[in-house]
Every structure is written in C-alpha cells, then in structure tokens.
Amino acid sequence: MTQNTIAFQGVPGAYSNLACRAAYPAMQTLPCASFEDMFAAVHEGRARLAMVPIENSVAGRVADIHHLLPESGLHIIAEHFQRVNHQLLGLKGTTLAEIKTAASHIQALSQCRNNLRALGIRPVVHADTAGAAAEVAQKGDRSMAAIASTLAAETYGLDILKGDMEDAEHNTTRFVVMAKEPIDPDPAKGPIVTSFVFRVRSVPAALYKALGGFATNGVNITKLESYILDGHFSSAQFYADIDGHPDQRGVRLALEELSFFSREVRILGVYPASPFRQGQG
C-alpha cells in the first residue's frame, strides 16, 4: 500500500493534493501537517514519494523550502508543473456581495491581490488554502470566504462565488517529486535536469569564478537562488537547476570547476525535464 502512496503537505483539497492527482492519478495521497512530516512519511515507509512545491510563477519561491530540501535526506526524481486556478469559495447560497474577508495561504493571497482589492475583500492569512476552506465550512459565517481549489470546494461542500481569481493567466506552481533513492535517467531518452546546492568560498569574485565553468562549457543554468545560512548574513547557500546530466562532458567539467571554487556541492537530484519546459521555449 505504501508503495502506491504519495505524501503532500496540507489537508485534503490543497493544491499539492491536486498536483498529486494530476501527476500520479493511480496513487493514494497522504496529507501531512508540515513539510518535515511529509519527508518523514517517506523515510518511515508510509509513502513512496513526496510532492514538494518549489516556486510559483507569480509569487516566487515557496518560503523555507530551499532550507528544507538539502536536509530532507531525499532525492529529486521528477518535476511537475501545476496550473493554479484560484476560486473564491463561500457557504452554500452565499452571494459575492456578502463577502467581507477571504482567507488563504499567503502565496495564494499574493497571487490574487489585485482581484481581491477590486472586489473590496480583505485578505486574511491562513496556514494553507484547503484549511481555509475547511474553516469557512466549519464556522458558518456568510461574510467569510476562502481562496482555494475546485477540489477544496467539492471536499468541504462550498460554493464557487467567483472563479479564476488569480491575477495572471500563467499562474503555475513548480513541484519536485522526492524519494528515498535517487534515479539515473538516460540523457539519450530526453532532456535532463540536475539540481544541486553549493556554497562559495568567502573571497572576491568567488561566485563569478564558480559559475564561469557553466558558460565556457555551454551548460544552461535555468534557476539560481541564494539564501542566508546564519544570523550574521555572512554565509550564503545557492540552489541551482541546470540542463543536462552530470555524466555529459560539459556538465561534468562545469561541476568540477564549481567544486574547485566552492566549499560544498551537493546534488539533490538528476531527473527527466518535464514536457512543460519544452512548451515554454
């Protein structure tokens, strides 16, 4: 049973739940209260996979996740891009004019900022989208709404008062799928993504030199983000995604050069690129 289970952070009806259904429709889903609980479910054998949100095309990076990924002890084996359509949900029979507040995860609220302002609805931060929908259903206050998915509306018996609340049509969340064991995909069968973290030495131009090997070896960096590791703001770790497999000559040489100028390079996963990427060129 656990071999056919995928864990996600949130409650039933969350967008991560939706992503699990879209990417692995034959698998059972396991809701987890926190990212740490989700990783633990895989380590303890209660789930085979974990669906982890990384970033959103409108709201940016998912808070804390880049700190948690390297410490998770899991490996990225796939990626999934989920189109996010936010719905304004209220109690059955409620009208849009009755709504005064809308609760949701801070990422969802930021993705609907302009539409909420135009409707004169005050945003209220909640731990997660589906949890906000559950609370609206539980409290029975006709002035309260939630920003959540159609799945959340079905799960908690709410009406969709207004659909497509997101401000941007391209609103998409990128997820990575993590497992206990890494995979080694064949580059001959299609494009590959390699994800890793690294820390550069505290010397002038260290980042410039560390990344120079990717330019000279023709390796495309598709994502690069930094985040502070300590309270002194003196040590930064970088998260990167690149096109290619570490066994390919250009990637191998670029990673060797990176290692020379870095204190630590840790590969988080080597996995097939999502078909979604080919459609964005």
Automatic annotation (TrEMBL):
EC number(s) from the headed UniProt entry: 4.2.1.51
PROSITE patterns: ACT, PREPHENATE_DEHYDR_1, PREPHENATE_DEHYDR_3
One Pfam family this sequence matches: PDT
Record carries keyword NADP: no
Classification lineage: Bacteria, Pseudomonadati, Pseudomonadota, Alphaproteobacteria, Rhodospirillales
Primary enzyme class: lyase
Site (Essential for prephenate dehydratase activity): 173
GO MF annotation, one: prephenate dehydratase activity
Protein name (database record): prephenate dehydratase
Signal peptide: none
Pathway: Amino-acid biosynthesis; L-phenylalanine biosynthesis; phenylpyruvate from prephenate: step 1/1
